[in-house]
Amino acid sequence: MPLSLPLHSPLPNTSLFLPLSSHPPNFTLSTLPTINLHRRRRINHHHRSLTTTTTIRASVIQYDTTQQQPLLQVNDLKAKIVENGVEILHGVNLTVNQGEVHAIMGKNGSGKSTFAKVLVGHPEYEVTGGSVVFKGENLLDMEPEERSLAGLFMSFQSPVAIPGVSNDEFLVMAYNARRRKLGLPELGPLECFSYLMEKLKLVNMKPDFLNRNVNEGFSGGERKRNEILQLAVLGADLAILDEIDSGLDVDALRDVANAVNQLLTPKNSLLMITHYRRLLDLLKPTHVHVMVSYK
Ligand code: ADP
Ligand code: MG
């Protein structure tokens, strides 16, 4: 039976809607409780409404359908690990509309990172069923770099270093590639410099970040900030942030959340994976899902 929380309620504790151990593996969506938080929040001067907190059946993510333009439509997505053939995603469904902020929570090992990596085309995974449509196109047909150029961004749970490539070179190259894709003229060195400085300010990072090699010698927190800098520079229609909170202290988390909030518009969307309640308070999802690992 749907549960309703009063307007002033804090975001639900997962234990409220995720009685993982008490559900048999074969229960259906219709038997699950749904928590509706009827309230509106203000983000970056745009209103986003927190419409649902979901409820999941075995790796299936339930979603709300609204009248908005769907940005991402995932239907019955199944994927396995290439190396050992183990299926991790058993049929995931998710719709993200423009302007929505979705959070995916769930136990370690339930497949959250796998889901995100499959969306961006990570070669460790093979899709074995289902479909993914992004901005009206078949995402699964695209190479990873095409997905990125099309406006899909992902911040990995453990961002990797790229030795020998400086941050500013990397950002300028990637940004100009995206501009070309959008039919915009490339920026010259001076324009790039002022553009990057503006974005550094947004994420509250020092300019010397630009001269360092991508993530080389960066602390965990610096890597996470650097991911948000990349997002700020590249822009995205859908940004997927996998545990962006890990390794961040309270101040850094606030900076990162502020930056992300400033990047949100009614046209773009965010899919964040997190265990951390404080991130939900800061980024104010419109939808919360819980991923469960069993078939
Ligand atoms: P989550 O992000 O929810 O913690 P993951 O998607 O990282 O979960 O992992 C889901 C399951 O798949 C785990 O059991 C994990 O060990 C396994 N897994 C994911 N990727 C790989 C891989 N590349 N090789 C082997 N096992 C993997
Ligand atoms: Mg993970």
TrEMBL record:
NCBIfam families: sufC (TIGR01978). Keywords: ATP-binding, Nucleotide-binding. GO terms for molecular function: ATP binding; ATP hydrolysis activity. It comes from the Eukaryota. Residues 72-292 form the ABC transporter domain. SUPFAM superfamilies: P-loop containing nucleoside triphosphate hydrolases (SSF52540). This is ABC transporter domain-containing protein. InterPro entries: AAA+_ATPase, ABC_transporter-like_ATP-bd, ABC_transporter-like_CS, FeS-cluster_ATPase_SufC, P-loop_NTPase. Pfam families: ABC_tran.
